[in-house]
């Protein structure tokens, strides 16, 4: 049986091509825009390839207790909604997805919101949301017979790509900005056997260079310009809808870097809605770091009709991106769902990350922009207390342990960045203390901390 029911549609001019006709850089030859995967058979109600909502909900639940390997993946469990392979037997999986949805009682109370949750995508096999996209796109690379795959990365994509390439038996090339990625991520790429090149360029420069390279060598590009990445990354939307018994939350808040993830989650919810699995779409908001906020500016200045790249600066290195590839897709999803796009400062990110940590949910700084953004939206009265809100936490806290240690030691932020929030920061800092190795000294430290 052929499991492949897809074609590609240009997001700019609407041109349609088969998967095999895509250019190595995944740009449209007519207009230069990116493609998205579509399934023509889903179009008409009653069409033979149109999935049946009731049957799917039942099947997906049954698969949770299945012993078949593919059903253990939180991506391929939903394979009826990503028929992108000639055979699902070619899927390369590390049993990604099926990540936890945690309630955040303390943050909810502090913000006066009843229902606040975190979908923790950092709990994936390589510690970030990239795994859900990588299983999909790596499977396509393998099925199409590529020997080499490549990505430019701020760290997480490279970690995920290297792991999945190793599982698939493919070689991989990683281009990263020299000195600008967290050690945890770099160590993963090395461990999984990638050919890692540190370039004197930022992420945007690395991606531009790689785009030229894949036109000259038979290397499969695995950045999120690759539309199959987004097919995998849309599946957390299915997990979230399923967790709420197919009643979608009111509001989803996502960090924005290269803007593939917000686009993918939006596509996931849109497909659920169009196929009749859910009755409405959530509002989808995207939060950027203030020093890397090209989409915020674009939406403010020209309603998302054009985007001026910025020189990006933020300690949340995962989203240190000034020229995001998928900005048009993200702008569309924000506008279609009446979401917001705003930015948060370095101090707001650090505080939000420590607050999540204090709830027992460590995450990367890039993930913490979601809580920082929610606090702003709530303060501006844009979120009502009765709303159900889900924050998408994108990466594991151990990816960037240096950031966390610097925060608790008080060496992360400059004085001018903390003006007005010094006390808030101090109340969250838990630096390690040097204590003499005697019971009395440890008991004294204990007394000091409760007293
Ligand atoms: N959060 C984390 C932890 C990330 O690693 C990234 C992107 C984002 C958020 C932003 O997601 O790009 O889809 O808008 N990291 C990429 C990388 C760019 O190379 O690992 P986005």
How would you sum up this structure, described in words?
This protein has 451 residues and is of the alpha/beta class. The protein has 16 helices and 13 strands. The strands form three sheets. Strands 4-5-13-10-11-12 form a six-stranded mixed β-sheet, sandwiched between helices. Strands 8-7-6-9 form a four-stranded parallel β-sheet, with helices on both faces. A three-stranded antiparallel β-sheet has the order 2-1-3. The longest helix has 15 residues.
Task: Indicate the structural class.
Answer: alpha/beta
Report the total helices: 16
Number of strands: 13
How much of the sequence lies in strands comes to: 5-15%
Shape: globular
Q: Give the C-alpha Rg.
A: 22 Å
Bound ligands: ligand F0G
Give me the side-by-side strand order of the main sheet: 4-5-13-10-11-12
Give the CA-CA distance, first to last residue. 69 Å
Q: State the share of residues found in helices, binned by percent.
A: 25-40%
H/E element string?
A: EEEHEHEHEHEHEHEHHEHEHHEHHEHHH
Largest sheet: 6 strands, mixed
* Uncertain stretches: none
Instruction: Please tell me the overall pLDDT.
Output: 96
């Amino acid at each position: 049986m052929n499991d492949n029911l897809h074609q590609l549609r240009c997001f700019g001019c609407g041109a349609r091509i088969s998967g095999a006709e895509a250019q190595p850089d995944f740009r449209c030859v007519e207009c230069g825009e990116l493609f998205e995967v579509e399934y023509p058979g889903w179009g008409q109600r009653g069409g033979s390839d149109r999935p049946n909502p009731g049957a799917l909900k039942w099947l997906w639940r049954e698969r949770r207790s299945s012993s078949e390997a593919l059903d253990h993946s939180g991506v391929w469990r939903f394979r009826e909604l990503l028929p992108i392979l000639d055979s699902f037997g070619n899927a390369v999986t590390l049993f990604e997805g099926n990540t936890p949805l945690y309630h955040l009682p303390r943050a909810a109370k502090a913000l006066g919101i009843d229902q606040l949750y975190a979908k923790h995508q950092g709990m994936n096999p390589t510690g970030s949301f990239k795994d859900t996209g990588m299983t999909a796109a790596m499977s396509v690379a393998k099925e199409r017979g590529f020997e080499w795959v490549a990505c430019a990365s701020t760290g997480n994509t490279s970690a995920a790509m290297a792991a999945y390439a190793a599982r698939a038996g493919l070689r991989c090339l990683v281009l990263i900005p020299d000195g600008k990625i967290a050690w945890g991520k770099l160590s993963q790429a090395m461990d999984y056997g990638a050919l890692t090149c540190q370039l004197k360029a930022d992420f945007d420069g690395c991606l531009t260079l790689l785009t030229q390279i894949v036109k000259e060598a038979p290397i499969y590009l695995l950045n999120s310009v690759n539309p199959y990445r987004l097919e995998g990354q849309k599946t957390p939307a299915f997990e979230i809808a399923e967790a709420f018994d197919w009643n979608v939350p009111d509001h989803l808040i996502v960090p924005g870097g290269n803007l593939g993830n917000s686009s993918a989650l939006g596509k996931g919810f849109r497909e659920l809605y169009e196929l009749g699995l859910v009755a409405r779409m959530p509002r989808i908001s995207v939060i950027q770091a203030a020093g890397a906020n090209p989409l915020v500016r674009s939406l403010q200045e020209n309603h998302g009709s054009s985007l001026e790249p910025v020189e990006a600066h933020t300690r949340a290195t995962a989203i240190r991106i000034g020229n995001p590839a998928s900005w048009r897709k993200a702008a569309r999803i924000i506008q279609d769902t009446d979401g917001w796009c705003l930015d948060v400062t370095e101090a707001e990110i650090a505080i939000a990350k420590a607050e999540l940590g204090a709830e027992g949910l460590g995450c990367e700084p890039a993930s913490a922009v979601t809580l920082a953004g929610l606090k702003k939206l709530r303060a501006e009265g844009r979120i009502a207390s009765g709303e159900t809100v889900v924050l998408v936490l994108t990466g594991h806290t151990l990816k960037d342990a240096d950031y966390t240690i610097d925060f608790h030691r008080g060496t992360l932020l400059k004085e001018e960045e903390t003006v007005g929030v010094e006390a808030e920061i101090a109340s969250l800092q838990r630096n390690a203390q040097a204590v003499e190795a005697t019971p009395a000294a440890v008991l004294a430290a204990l007394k000091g901390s409760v007293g």
